[in-house]
Write a structure and sequence with these properties.
- The chain is an alpha/beta fold and 321 residues long.
- It has two domains: 194 residues, TIM Barrel (Alpha-Beta Barrel); 76 residues, no CATH class.
- It is built from 14 helices and eleven strands.
- An eight-stranded parallel sheet has the order 1-9-8-6-5-4-3-2. Strands 7-11-10 form a three-stranded antiparallel sheet, covered by helices on one side.
- Helix 8 packs across helix 14.
- 49% of the residues are buried.
- Bound molecules: ligand TUI.
- Ligand TUI binds next to strand 5 and strand 7.
């Protein structure tokens, strides 16, 4: 029997050790309830929304599923303090955080009975947050979509796993059972998947956004915002070409923010995938069809089981056994 502290399923009361990515503007009650209903941990993304909006989504999710679900709090959100207060009242099963250090909120969330799972992009922050009482961490590599760090999932996951004594969930570049099995081999106890859930039937993102993911190739993502210290992985389009060219010419962080304002919303809600930000991980090239969230989860873990049972591991002398 696995140690409870190491078992993401036991920690969160879920069937499969998979957490849905907290995709801003996208991860709503529809997707969160479908992922939780499928046996994973669905998440509502707070993005830049205010506390009332997130509270309403929590209540909608509760009406759609009796399974555990969580909320992702993007720490650059101007309403973050009010959102944390609201979460302590609403008590979702878990809170994940992104784009910052959630240290000062951990004790309060835990006192409310909420599992706290920060997303980190470095060993240093993982260690600090484990000491501050985090229940698990998501180690997110730069293959991920949206706001990213420097390290890759392959390099980050085992280093974080060695550095902390809480469970590690790997994220970034995981889109099927092979990626999941690889993450477990690297020491992860769970996986976080974002890009593949973008094309879930229950995902309410615009059809144009879904179509762009479905058509993407391995080389179709780019990283905007490196010059401003907020790198964000997106699918290449006319907007990214323009912005990367402007960044090369020394666009100021203020001009950058002004230029990017509203672009994620435009792609997600209005389907403007020419001028909008189509945030996506590098694994988009693997995502080829719409399925329900439950089908995606079942397929990933069926593939993991097949890989384990095939025992096709290299054990020396270049032989697969
Ligand atoms: O947060 C994410 N992904 C996101 S957030 C987002 S909304 C946004 N849009 C434009 C600009 C910025 C945000 C879209 N995608 N993933 C988790 C994540 N967190 N990745 C990297 C980090 C991170 C980076 C630096 C976490 C902490 C950190 O440093 C904190 C510190 O103080 O040391």
């Amino acid at each position: 029997m696995a140690d409870c502290r190491e078992d993401i399923g036991a920690l969160l009361g879920i069937e499969y050790p998979i957490i849905q990515g907290g995709m801003a503007w996208i991860a709503d009650s529809s997707l969160a309830s479908a992922v939780s209903g499928g046996g994973g941990l669905g998440l509502i993304a707070a993005g830049n929304a205010d506390a009332d909006f997130v509270r309403a989504e929590i209540r909608r999710t509760r009406a759609l599923t009796d399974k555990p679900f969580g909320v992702n709090v993007m720490l650059l959100n101007p309403h973050v303090d009010a959102i944390m207060d609201m979460l302590c009242e609403e008590k979702p099963a878990a809170v994940t955080t992104g784009a910052g250090n959630p240290g000062k909120y951990i004790a309060r969330l835990k006192d409310a009975g909420i599992k706290v799972i920060p997303v980190v992009a470095s060993v240093a922050l993982a260690v600090r947050l484990a000491r501050n009482g985090a229940d698990a961490v998501v180690a997110e590599g730069q293959e991920a979509g949206g706001h990213i760090g420097e390290a890759t999932t392959m390099a980050l996951t085992p280093q974080v796993a060695d550095a902390v004594d809480i469970p590690v969930v790997a994220a970034g570049g995981i889109g099927d059972g092979r990626g999941a099995a690889a993450a477990f081999m690297l020491g992860a106890k769970g996986i976080q998947v974002g890009t593949r859930f973008l094309v879930a039937r229950e995902c309410t993102v615009s059809q144009a956004y879904k179509d762009m993911i479905l058509k993407a190739k391995d080389s179709d993502t780019a990283v905007t915002g490196r010059s401003t210290g907020h790198p964000v992985r997106v699918l290449k389009n006319r907007m990214t070409k323009e912005i990367l060219s402007l960044e090369g010419k020394g666009l100021s962080p203020e001009e950058f923010e002004q230029r990017m304002a509203g672009t994620l919303r435009a792609a997600v809600k209005d389907g403007d995938v020419t001028h909008g930000s189509v945030m996506s991980g590098q694994i988009a090239g693997l995502v080829r069809r719409e399925q329900t969230a439950a089908e995606i989860i079942e397929e990933i873990f069926r593939e993991v089981k097949e890989i384990y049972e095939s025992r096709a591991f290299i054990c020396g002398a270049g032989r697969a056994v």
